[in-house]
Amino acid sequence: MNKLKILIVDDSALMRRTESDIISADSRFTVVGTCVDGLEAYDKVSKNPSDYDLVLMEINLPRMTGLEFLAAIKKARIQVKTIIVSANLKQDSKETIKALELGAFDFIRKPESFLEFRSDAFKAKLLEKISLASSGHTYSIRPASSGTTDTSRVVSPMNAREILAAITTPRRPHKAVSANAKKLVLIAVSTGGPKALQTVIPNLPKNLNAPILLVQHMAVGFTKSLAERLNAESSIKVVEAEHGQEIEKGTVYIAKGGTQMRLKKSGRGYVIDLNAEEPARNALKPCADILFESIADLDFDEIICCVLTGMGGDGTMGIHTLAQKNNCYVIAQDEKTSAVYGMPKVVFEAGLTDTVKPLEEVAKEIANNTGVLNYGC
Predict the structure, then answer these.
(1) Positive or negative, the Cα torsion across 282, 285, 287, 291?
(2) Which residue has the higher pLDDT, 45 or 110?
């Protein structure tokens, strides 16, 4: 069996040794080199890219930072996956979002103490992230790693099968509606999401004739930075959702990390309901299924559902519930452009999709089905 070849980049000798020990104890992986800064790493990877399958990278490095390394390999079109392992991820979530936009596959926050570094929880988390990155972008049903505490991207052997088995009734067929019909857009996305959303959201028109509710699987603190970055680069307005906020057309509302988001009727309009106390479903908080299910009894004429890259099957059961009662148009990202072909694959295999699109065509597909507002009328 060919082992995954890993390069560790960190200016801490202790961290390099700790990561090396964890990885070397797993027969699937091998550490083929270490570097103390991004410049040394870039020199190695650019000269011999085939020697490295994965890079574990600290963000804060001398000479060339982790972000500068990601930008450099992107510019040079070097295909090597990178996982950010840094102590400052939560304190500086903007840097984390930027790293993901530049192509980092995922990120892990370094523990605060040496004992945590040596804990089974950190070992399991690190190996799980590496395993997911090494498996390619195609999702497969597999058991969770024993001892892992980060199950947000781990799917039990029966989970996806149970989702598909539970879908025994056909969905209502989609029907075209008039331009002035009441529409809503829902987006579900996970692993690879920040980079994917950089392609979708900035290409949506400012005057989109529908609100967008978006679930990106992220922890507390990161969704605000994600919303701010997308808003700065888009003509359409992007915000982190707030409890009690009335939704408006031409605005993207990103579910707040660490909460479950629903939509509720309020007078003539609809307001966002956020619940930080509600437990995770399938280890997800926020969970797209919960949001989607909350809309099943609301009076929209058409709901455009979009499932993008991500591990697992979140969104499929929610769309199934919606499509029993509502007029839904379902878009799934294709396999080729998905960082992890999990969520789009499950919704497709459930027979719920109306169309499968490469990432660069998703924004156009959404806009074509919602239309735009005519401010001149």
Answers:
(1) positive
(2) 45
Enter the pTM of the model. 0.85
User: Residue 235 pLDDT > 90, yes or no?
Assistant: yes
> Taking a C-beta distance cutoff of 8 angstroms, is the pair 88, 110 a contact?
no
- The pLDDT, as a whole number, for residue 375 is 52
Kindly give the residue spans of alpha helices, DSSP state H, lying in 274-315: 288-294
Set 86, 93, 190, 225: catalytic member = 190
How far apart, in whole angstroms, are the C-alpha atoms of residue 126 and residue 144? 13
Picking from 338, 331, 339, the residue whose alpha carbon sits closest to that of residue 357 is: 331
pLDDT one-digit tens code per residue, 132-173: 888 655 444 333 333 333 333 333 333 677 888 888 888 899
Contact 211, 184 (CB under 8 A): yes
User: Tokens 């509600």 identify what position?
Assistant: 278
Active site residue 190: yes
CB 215 within 8 Å of CB 189: yes
Q: Is 135 a catalytic residue?
A: no
Answer whether residue 289 shows pLDDT above 60: yes
217 is catalytic: yes
Residue 271 φ/ψ, nearest 5 degrees: -125, 155
Per annotation, catalytic residue among 273, 289, 314, 334 = 314
Question: Cα–Cα distance between 310 and 375 in angstroms, integer?
Answer: 36
User: Residues 211, 247: contact at Cβ < 8 Å?
Assistant: yes
Query: Which residue type is seen at 300?
Result: F
- 8-22 pLDDT, tens digit each: 999 999 899 999 999
- Catalytic-labelled residue, pool 93, 137, 174, 217: 217
b/e per residue, 3-12, with b = 16+ CB within 10 A? ebbbbbbbee
